[in-house]
Amino acid sequence: DLNRRMTRHLALTGGLVVLSSLSARSVETMLLKATAPLEIVGFFALSGTLTNGAVDFLASGLSATLLPAMARAYGRGSHSGLDRLLPDAVRLFSALGFAIAALGSVVSPGLVDLLYGSRYAGAVVAVQVSLVAAGIGLLSAPMNAYQTTADRQAQRVVITGSVLAINGIVALLLVPEFG
Questions:
Q1: Is residue 73 predicted with pLDDT exceeding 80?
Q2: Are 84 and 160 in contact (CB under 8 A)?
């Protein structure tokens, strides 16, 4: 039974890795390359880099401790311990996501100018939008940790695949029109 569960878990984790690699702005980047000037593609890449840096810098420590904390709670009291921890984690990640979105929107113009110079002022709006989206997206971290801990990897694969499909459809509708 353990061997079967481990094999299933590893296969689902592999599926998540594949889906996650496809969702890392790849659809938008391909569409931008096909429909927009290279300068816009560069601004988009810059916004992704700064957004990933901000999220990694501000949330990596918290994210690194969340899964072990949930696993410990699950081990101590089955689902009840895990269910008590989830709302606190959602609140904490909500506050952190709001901080990333708000602070990022405010400091982006100065940060882009400081790091890249005034030639990249066109990237500021893309950075601001990316940081707001990343702040909202940070809410997925507690749910991902919860689903992994509670052995619900199949749900994560379905959710990730659905989000990827929705993201692809929205990108197909918006990127050619608005860049």
A1: yes
A2: no
